[in-house]
Please model this.
Amino acid sequence: MATSWGIASCGMISHDFVNAMTTLPTSDHKVVAVAARSLKSAEEFNKKFGFETAKAYEGYKSLADDSEVEVVYVGAINPAHLELATMMLNAGKHVLCEKPLGINVKQTKEIIECARKNKKFLMEAVWSRTLPSYKKISQVIKDGTIGEVKNVVATFGFPLARVERLMKKDMGGGTILDLGIYTVQIAQLAMAAEKPSKIAATGHMNEEGVDLGISASMVYSEGRSATIVTSAEAKLPCDAVIVGTKGMIRVPEPFWCTSEIEVVMNISRVQRELKVEKFNWELPQGAKLDYNFPNSNNLAHEAQHVRECILAGKLESPLLSLDESLVIAEIMEDIRKQVGVVYNED
Model:
């Protein structure tokens, strides 16, 4: 039987998520209802994808009350995550909520506690973790192929001044929550989800009081560290490197949704001889429409992962636990407070 999806919000990321879902078998996934702040937006969304039987709702309460909806994808802007995620969970729906799960640690804890109280599946939509490339990264690290992980370096930046929601505090703007979460999550993946013992961060803000760029160093046990950089003003390499005692994993741009990686082995330290092994994966094909963001085809893996978790009776993802989402939230909050970013929700 198909997993019955409800879509909360009809913005660009919701478009890409649903578009990617159309590459999956209709026997496995079905959008049964779509909700937006305006009925017109919901109706246009359904029409765009040809969802003739899907319901369109103005506002989100009707979506929560729809008995046909099994799981809700929350694709609204950051400040709306708490209200929508808890509304759906309290109504007995499973939830896949766009990252960041909450604006701050307090909100993140509240959403997680709500899911656990209602005994419903909840996952923060860090889609990176569900990709074949990231599963390979995890396996390479676990197998000890590159030795003991010692360092991670990740950067994510583009000129984004024209993206209003990233520039406004009341819209949960700033690079830390939207871009930084990807750099943090790959560091946490490499460090086996251990919380850093020390974080040193700096950055600068706009007149709204949200960060335009940050640089942070995170210290872990056993001589390990990670460095992350974000920017809304300049194009950064947008890649990541995981360095071990025997080699490294290169994760090329766009590292957060890559379809390729390189495993580089130091086979002769004296001659500095390297062995490079490349791995590539095909992007899911057959979407009905164009995507807004690079490699959004890969969102199909996220949708399928959620279905598999729900069918298996899981209440959280084994690829990104709720406890790890909380640690990521704690890291981001530490960084932004060092930079000076304070949200109204704090």
In short: The first strand starts at residue 3 and ends at 8. Residues 6 and 72 are 5 Å apart (CA to CA). Residues 131-285+321-339 form a domain with the Dihydrodipicolinate Reductase; domain 2 fold (CATH 3.30.360.10). The chain has two domains: 3-128, 131-285+321-339.
